[in-house]
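Async update (no meeting this week)

Hi team, since we skipped the sync, here's where things stand on the single-chain job. The sequence we agreed to prioritize is pasted below, unchanged from the tracker. I ran it this morning and attached the output directly underneath so nobody has to dig for it. Comments welcome in thread, and please keep replies under the output.
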Amino acid sequence: MASDLLPVVTLFVAVFGLLIGSFLNVVIWRVPRGESIVSPPSACPRCGHRISARDNIPVISWLLLRRRCRGCHQPISSRYPLVELGTAALFVVVTLHFGVSATTPAYLYLAAIAVALALIDLDVHRLPNTIVLPAYGVGAVLLAAASWASGDWSALLRAAIGAAVLFGLYMLMMVGSALLRGGTGMGFGDVKLAGVLGLYLGWLGWGPLVVGAFGAFLLGGIFSIALLATGVANRKTGVPFGPWMLLGAATGIGIGAPLWTAYLGLLV
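Output:
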């Protein structure tokens, strides 16, 4: 029955993802500035022209307005529709991966905050508490609901262990980085995000937890080496690590279990 509903649910999730992506554009712009995400209504950041409902339809309004503000006619960044489309795509991928199940809402929530956190970290090199800290409570409730639906309460215990382990690991690395590099390097925002990701990865299993944690350093390391090799950055250049933590977690969620099984198979 669930598989029969999947095409309809996937279409609904795609549309829902576009709407959430539109809201995330507000979050990404306002949260780093300490502004309310509720009021005032959305407006052009250049001229202050209030955006009407007809001009706030995800992607479609951007195309109908020919990528320009109705008030000042200045270009509207293509980042807005890309965030909307990217969020919709992520929601579809999550739904196809987990199917129609009680687990899906938990990971849709993770996908949504991942989009916001990655872009905010790229913009201002911060992972705001207003997004990260509530994710502990929301994630715990959603994963508890998934454990209740599946009857697998051990997954919830594993999630708690995963959160504690990754939080502790990143805390140690932050302290070590501060001692060795004079206070530069990993920040406490990364530590707090690590706990959230450990919660979600641990719920899925030890394999996703290990692969997700390792994947962040592997992917981030490769990117940093590429920047150094091309001269785009030097050893003192600050590179936000949050996006790589999130990408590593996505790897752990998507293919962590089979990768871990294959790795263990090589050892036996």
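Quick observations from my side:
The CA atoms of residues 13 and 91 lie 6 Å apart.
Residues 2-30 form the longest helix (29 residues).
Reply here if anything looks off.
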